[in-house]
Amino acid sequence: MTQHDPQQDIWKQQVGEAAAKLVEDNMIVGLGTGSTANQFILALGRRVQQGLRIAGAVSSSQASHDLATSMGIPVADLDTYPELDIYIDGADEIDPQLQLIKGAGGALLREKIVASSARRFVVIADTSKLVQRLGLLFPVPVEVVPFAITPVRKRLEALGAVVTTRQRAGQTFITENQNLILDCAFPDGIADPVTLNAHLHAIVGVVETGLFLQMAKQAVIGGADGVHIIQ
Ligand code: 5RP
User: Given a cut of 60, is residue 2 above it in pLDDT?
Assistant: First the structure.
């Protein structure tokens, strides 16, 4: 895990504000989850309060829903808005092809569902999230049906993962979908994310993985040199 740098908070705020400017009148907007996505939601809320009229929003977590609602953003669900114009979210790692590891906050399943329902997925982050190879800083979170947890763990270990059942506050972490998360560390990083993701999805009992591949179209990155777009 990377060390917290207070400067990162400023960069997150800057990318949140830059991302909010990508939202235009009458768009349907997907809201990500996490501290960077929160900065986007706050900035979007300020724009809505200043007169931006978005058609609606869909949130990837209860926390983002609550924050957005408190800012006056009209949040609905995928039944109301099955197709979104834009989805904006953070990431734990971003490689040069805009392949991502996501899910440190535990919202990966809903994040991937909302991202895949959007015409455009923009990932926002500070420079600490940029990596040359996925998997060296963060494990890949794998969301698993509780009934299958032990056989799935064995099959993940057979793929070379060092597996930890996610805990929070001393308790087994349960997702908003009532599943568990197995964090899968790959000590040498992930040489071929596409093949690994296919192997993970082939395990019965795996619901979703935190590998977001060929999904993000653009990255808005904040750092010491200001805000940059990668696409
Ligand atoms: C939550 C996520 C987050 O987007 C990811 O963990 C980045 O979070 P932060 O912006 O707080 O670093 O995938 O499930």
Answer: no
Beta bridge partners of 123: 89, 219
Q: Looking at this protein, which amino acid is placed at residue 81? A: Y
Region 37-63: mean pLDDT is 98
- Candidate from 33, 101, 128 with most ligand 1 atoms within 8 A of CB, to mutate: 33
pLDDT at position 3: 61
Max alpha carbon distance in the chain (Å)? 54
The ipTM is 0.98
Name the average pLDDT for the chain. Answer: 97
What is the distance in A from the centroid of ligand 1 to the CA of 135?
15
Residues 6+ apart with CB under 8 A from 159: 184, 196, 199, 200
Task: Check residue 178 and give left, alpha or beta (phi > 0: left; psi -120 to 50: alpha).
Answer: left
Give dist(CA 91, CA 124) in Å, integer.
7
Residue 64: both structure tokens together: 């983002």
Calpha distance 26→39 (Å, rounded): 21
* Predicted local confidence at residue 1, as pLDDT: 46
Atom nearest to 36 CA in ligand 1: 10
Global pTM value: 0.96
Whether 111 is catalytic is yes
